[in-house]
Design brief:
Length: about 200
């Protein structure tokens, strides 16, 4: 008996051409199928220290993200982090974390199918996002490494600042809202069409 692997489609597979046509000052590309795990544990606990040792990076504090390693760690709440890694890392990363935690109390849940990630870059990122997001993206307020859960045009997103002056941003958006967010981004760029940068 042959078991066929199901074909995966990213939530924005039909949007790649449209997103590539945005103004020169805003580049948007989807990072589909990233491994995403929700980690719940008590900060500062033996479980937290074991996870940090296993990952080789700290669990970031409130409103921050640790983006330096292969596994990105995003603060989502007082006892919750989202771990983001390349596609296909779910099994080994879950096993690694559960092994590190041992008998200590913690939960690790695979939520990879829940969201997709949009990588935005360019000098128009901050300006365009300001049209639909109440966050102040001034670098004095939201420096590189900021990780904030907010609304973008009424869609819930997690926004991670990756570049100076918010010139590089990740938007993690639930798959069911991905097309809506893409539509909004295209519409928000209407006045910048024809811009050369």
């Amino acid at each position: 008996m042959t078991v066929e692997t199901p074909t995966r489609f990213s939530p924005l597979s039909e949007w790649q051409h449209t997103l590539a046509q945005l103004p020169a000052g805003l580049q948007v590309r989807e990072l589909p199928f990233l491994t995403q795990l929700t980690l719940r544990l008590q900060p500062g606990s033996p479980a937290a220290r074991a996870v940090e040792a296993s990952l080789g990076s700290p669990l970031p504090g409130p409103l921050r993200a640790e983006m330096s390693g292969d596994v990105k760690v995003l603060w989502m709440g007082p006892d919750e982090w989202l771990l983001v890694a390349p596609d296909g890392r779910q099994r080994d990363l879950v096993a690694q974390l559960r092994s590190a935690v041992g008998d200590e109390f913690a939960t690790v849940t695979d939520v990879s199918a829940q969201r997709t990630t949009l990588a935005l870059s360019g000098h128009l990122v901050r300006t365009v996002l300001a049209q639909g997001c109440a966050l102040d993206l001034d670098p004095r307020v939201t420096p590189v490494g900021s990780c904030l859960t907010t609304l973008l045009a009424q869609a819930p997103v997690t926004l991670v600042v990756r570049g100076e002056a918010a010139s590089g941003v990740w938007l993690l958006v639930r798959s069911s809202f991905a097309s809506y967010v893409a539509t909004w981004l295209v519409d928000a760029c209407t006045e910048y069409r024809g811009s050369t940068g």
